[in-house]
Amino acid sequence: MRPIILGIFSAFFFAFTFILNRSMDLAGGSWIWSASLRYFFMVPFLFLIVLGRKNLKPLWLEMKRKPGTWVLWSTVGFGLFYAPICFSAAYAPGWLIAATWQITIISGSLLAPLFYETIETEKGKVQVKGKIPFKGLTMSFIILFGIILMQLEHASSLTMIELTLGILPVVVASFAYPLGNRKMMDECEGRLDVFQRVLGMTLASMPVWIILSLYGLLTVGPPSIAQSIQSGLVAISSGVIATVLFFRATDLVRGNMQKLAAVEATQSMEVLFSLIGELLLLHTALPTPLSWVGIILVMGGMVLHSYVTHKKDLPDGRKVSA
Q1: Which terminus has fewer CB within 10 Å in the chain: N or C?
Q2: 147/138 Cα distance (integer angstroms)
Q3: SS3 133
Q4: What does the pLDDT look like over 93-109, one tens digit per residue?
């Protein structure tokens, strides 16, 4: 249950991403700076944490061992995740991006065959190729259906350009984030703690953010003070707190594709937290009855997903919660 709780807390802090990114876009800020500034601001915070824990040297040695692998999967997990999210904020409201992002619940499950998981046998622990957790995936579709209901009436008022540029980049991000995270978990094999891994991936993704920021200087100019401040808040809440909580939750279930899918399903709570945040900070309209039905389905689906993916077989064929 602990990984699920950590996942829900991470969803709360992740929600600030969608709210503040939309706020920055409405104020005229460029998505380029919303994306790159977050990771620039994350470095000093994470560096001080890892330094205070006296864990910098092991991280350096690990990154030095396979620098190309670090750059590749950090670029996928962070670069191809956050740049599209920020880009979409220029074409769609925060609630739609947060809702579309929940497709990562399904994306993460579909990635299972690309990885190996550890199972117990009579001969001990063995590594087997992951399988798509169809039982948990069924619960994921319940969550997704609830999200569709929540946004159905709003989506009908958007143009085709807004739907395309506001949704497709988020779909790309929904696959990139779990893929990069899982690849680096497998590569580290428990040798690094969550703070080291997040700092390492942030540093390894720096080439992307440096190139993007140089492009921003040439095309839109430097960021405003207000956007820099809000990007700093995103860096702390989403980049540091939420990412560390989520990575810690996934670390606790590393090697178990079903439980990993359950942790990733907790991110559906971002829709609810984003909705509440936009109501309070951006003064959006109250949800309609149809939206409340969707909210109930999201919450119920998440509970069912957690229950189904935490069951294991007893020797006599009965089931018991893990």
Answers
A1: N
A2: 15
A3: coil
A4: 777 787 778 787 778 77
pLDDT digits (tens, 9 = 90+) for 302-312: 777 666 665 54
What would the DSSP string read from start to end of 222-255? SPPHHHHHHHHHHIIIIIIIIHHHHHHHHHHTTT
Angle 281-285-289 (CA atoms, 0-180°, nearest 5)? 130
Nearest CA-CA partner of 131 in 45, 256, 241: 256
Is 221 contained in some domain? yes
Please indicate, yes or no, if residue 56 is contained in any of the structural domains. Answer: yes
Q: Beta 311-313 vs 319-321: how paired, if at all?
A: antiparallel
Which among 203, 178, 250 has a CA at the least distance from the CA of 59?
Answer: 203
| pTM for the whole structure | 0.79
HSE of 257 in the Cβ direction (CA atoms, 13 Å)?
A: 26
Give pLDDT < 50 ranges for the chain.
312-322
Residue 96 located in a structural domain: yes
Q: Say what the pLDDT of residue 321 is.
A: 30
pLDDT of 128 = 64
Total residues belonging to the chain: 322
**Beta carbons of 182 and 111 less than 8 angstroms apart:** yes
How many domains are there within the chain?
1
pLDDT of res. 64 = 94
Could you tell me the two tokens for 22? Answer: 């939309």
Could you tell me if residue 254 is left (phi over 0), alpha (psi between -120 and 50 degrees) or otherwise beta? beta
Q: Find, among 95, 118, 81, the residue nearest to 246 by Cα.
A: 81
Domain limits for position 180: 2-309
